[in-house]
Amino acid sequence: MAEEAVLGFLEKNEEIPDSGKFAEEKGISHDEIVNIIKSLNGFRLVDAQDIKRERWVLTQEGDLYAKYGSPEVQLFLAVPPEGITREELQKTFMSRLPDDIEEKLKSSIYKIGSTQAIKNKWIEMGKSQVSRKVQHVDDRVKDLLIQIQNGEVVGAEDIDALRRRKLINSQIWKGYSVKKGPQYAPKRKKAATDLTRENLQRGDWKEIEFKEYNFLAKGQPTEGGCLHPLLKVRRQIQMIFLQMGFEEMPTNNFVESSFWNFDALFQPQQHPARDSHDTFFLKEPSSTRMLPEDYVERVKRVHESGGYGSRGYGYEWKREEANKNLLRTHTTAVSSRMLYALAQGPFTPKRYYSIDRVFRNEAVDRTHLAEFHQIEGLICDRGLTLGHLIGVLHDFFSRLGMSKLKFKPAYNPYTEPSMEIFSYHEGLQKWVEVGNSGMFRPEMLLPMGLPEDVQVIAWGLSLERPTMILYGVDNIRDLFGHKVDLSLIKRNPICRLGL
Amino acid sequence: MPTVSVGRDRLFQALGRTYTKEEFEDLCFKFGIELDDMTTEKAIIRKEKHLEEEEPPEDEEVIYKIEVPANRYDLLCLEGLVQALRIFNGLDSIPTYNVASISKESMSKMHVKAEVCIAETKRRTLVAIGTHDLDTIEALLNIINSILMYCAELVESAISLTKNFRADELMEFYKSDMKLKKFLHIIENSPVFPVIYDRNRTVLSLPPIINGAHSAISLKTKNVFLECTATDLTKANIVLNTMVTMFSVYCERKFEVEPVEVIYSDGKSYISPDLSLYQMVVPLSYITSAVGVSLPAHEVACLLNKMQLYAKHSVSEKNETSFTIYVPPTRSDILHPCDVAEDVAIAYGYNEIPKAKLPSLKPQSLNQFSDLIRAEIAMVGYTEVLTWILCSYKENFTMLNRKDDKSTAAINGNPRSADFEVVRTSLMPGILKTVGHNKDHPKPIKIFEVGDVVLLDETKDVGASNHRHLGALYCGATSGFEVLDNFDIPDPCSIVEVNIENFL
User: Could you tell me how many CB contacts below 8 A there are between chain A and chain B?
Assistant: First the structure.
């Protein structure tokens, strides 16, 4: 109704100069008018200008006096021409006060009244007796208050006096003057925020004005699932291996024997890595049930006394040590099983890879865990050289976005030569180690039964490290494990490694 | 990996030049060791005593902590490290270690009585080393596997107290020593302990716990006696050889060692140390095929020299060159010709070896990427559709309120019907038609397609090119913004279509 009033008025008139007056004229509350004006202004149907007026309003006390008269006059009137005792006066005065005023308030009004009456020199208050000093008084205060109530102008001195008695308060009145706006229409068109089935059926979609589409709004969050960041990276690395012609090794066995994990790899039994400091040995099942006995014999001999061109380690090899079960410390244990299996038949060149969980008894910190994923690749063929290993590493790592590589001599019990792989990280501006590699030792390959001219080049790295570098995660437990923030998984982008 | 701490200035002095940090790191990188940490002697002491770390004054001796490979026992001291690096840099030639020629009669003798048994764990448990001032020892030493726990025999205290202890009392006594108590467990529960005495039954050492004060090395020591006690004879010899060769750098007759005869209780004896060179025959072809670089024999020999391996080459009747490698006692890590090949590669420089390419395949990035996107969109709950690439003029243009300006679409010259008139320039017709045929499907309908559209393209040889688009549609009762009366869709839909090639 208010909207109609405003828009309707503006249709025939230039301006609504004062929203307050307008509201009064139309008999609509000013607040309602103000709300409508604001809304119309927002949609630019009208152009509203602020009007501010300061005006005086009566306080509660002022209101009281305007209604019933000021207390000093009431008091004066309660004093008869012959005078009256103070107690009598108080009693009379208070009994004359309207009933809806509280008792406590009544006595304070009495005090105010008497103080004011004395001040005005209307009465004389003796020790016990009160008498009139003048014959007649005007209730100027009441009149002024009524004037103010009516919105009449009142002199500054009087305003001051009333204000000091806390009978009036200044109030800022806000209103508007309103003109037609650029989008003015006699009737407001509501912009639709959505298209509904009913719109289509009714056919009114042809006329509806639609609210402008906000392309910058984020939209509703989508419901759905997402994959884990580490495994997304794993998938891409798998794709890289497949494209490079590598076959996946079956790695679904976490429990491994020391034999396949260490001895078959020519890692001596006193090597510190076989310590319980670094390896998890199993209580149950503690011992491996079965090993290929003739192969075990050959491994024992090569450790103890060498052969195949080697001096061997010259120590006493113990079967019980080899039998000890553990949680595999590297997927190279699987590689040794695969190479042994390959050696049992006529030789064909092979390229194998695996990406799976390994276990190390290491102190857990920002970058180390007791379990992590190892990526391993190996090529088994005749005529492979260190140059081929370097070539393969360049190919593999360039697909991960690392094309600047450097190699450092290293030591692994089962590879010789061994190389640590370093890549130049543009962001950190330094060389970082990205992997380890080497050619498997003849003491490992020949006892398996592989032909003498067959070489195996291999390399390994962890899955976690490149993932952390790629996604800027500096604490591995933020990425992997149960202490992960689910929203990190949800907002992790598509992994584009290898594309 | 084991680390060795060496004073930086002493190291550089011994190497004959100073290096900047980068230069030294570079040298370490090429050789296969790593500068792990830099600290000062006083900082180490402070750390040990758990004192406050203050800013070290400039004049404190800088200590380099260098990580060395676990199989290089010869690099575990300044002398060995310096020797290896100097030879690597071509400053020194390979030393020849000699055992002094002394007649057996005048040799010092060491009797080993009965077997030693020590529990097997690490740290001093494999090998325990003792260094002694030779002049304090009256030769004819004895190791007695003795001191039965409850025997009344007394052992002279191995520290400078004059009290005599029984074996079990000694163990108790050492329990209070911070440094020694961690080694007690090695022999604690054994019924017998190894003890080394001289002829006068002066205790020289109680391996693996402590060496005697009587024969401790002092600044006045002129002659050094070295002994190793171990559970593994091979390891003992390796360690002894390493110790002996390193000490021999300082000998009056450089690199000369005086031998000792070791006599076992069963009468067997041998001369120790055995500094003989291990000989290995390695064909040149083996080396070059492992490294992957074709090198002439003299260059290989030269490279091996840098790695402390003296190589003498010879040619067989079949014209095959091979080397006889003389492996010094300091290189116990050389087990097989592959170790020799690695040393050649290191001396040559790993980063100088040219990379040999092996066949491999490259992916089609756009297709791989499309698959990744398809998976992501499906995971958000959209169903994939696969629609026709051919459609009618009307579907491709008019019904989408698009004008055919004749410069966008590839036109089919002999379509069998209107359905094959045009090659789609957008995924929209197909997707919208799908919704039109699934009016009764429960709402909301969420579908997508990733596929090619064809646009005319003057830059291409044939005049047209494919573009990979992703189109997705949401159709529900109350959402959407496309009005699609044309496709007979009763419900509002919103659609998005993007060219995903831009993301690559």
Answer: 176
